[in-house]
């Protein structure tokens, strides 16, 4: 289970000059993103020299965004599946 709380996104309004919040008549380029929770599920099994593992990420296919430097945003990974088969020598 992975939880991210409410946060801000958009363009940083802390600078001064022509692009400052004051110069834009109080129009902010910041917006709020709501919190979200994702759930991942994994299972594995060992048999002799074999191992198999499977995982479902973002099980409930939550749609939201990751906030990066200067508040840029990218969508989080949608539901995804992984399967690994390993043989040990």
Key phrases:
0% helix, elongated, mainly beta
Short description:
This protein is mainly beta and 89 residues long.
Low-confidence stretches: none
Number of helices: 0
Summing up helix and strand content along with how strands pair, one would put the structural category as mainly beta
Tell me the span between the first and last alpha carbons. 34 Å
What's the total number of strands?
Answer: 9
Strand content: over 45%
Choose one word for the global shape: elongated
Rg computed from alpha carbons, rounded to a whole number of angstroms: 21 Å
Structurally, the number of domains stands at 1
Helix-strand layout with pairing:
Elements: E1 2-4, E2 7-10, E3 30-33, E4 36-38, E5 41-47, E6 50-57, E7 65-67, E8 73-75, E9 80-87
Antiparallel strand pairs: 1-4, 2-3, 5-6, 6-9, 7-8
Structural features, described:
- The protein has 89 residues and is mainly beta.
- The chain has one domain (2-87).
- The chain has no helices and nine strands.
- It has strands at 2-4, 7-10, 30-33, 36-38, 41-47, 50-57, 65-67, 73-75, 80-87.
- A three-stranded antiparallel beta sheet has the order 5-6-9, with no helix packed on it.
- Strand 5 (41-47) and strand 6 form a beta hairpin.
- It is elongated and about 70 Å long.
- The two termini are 34 Å apart.
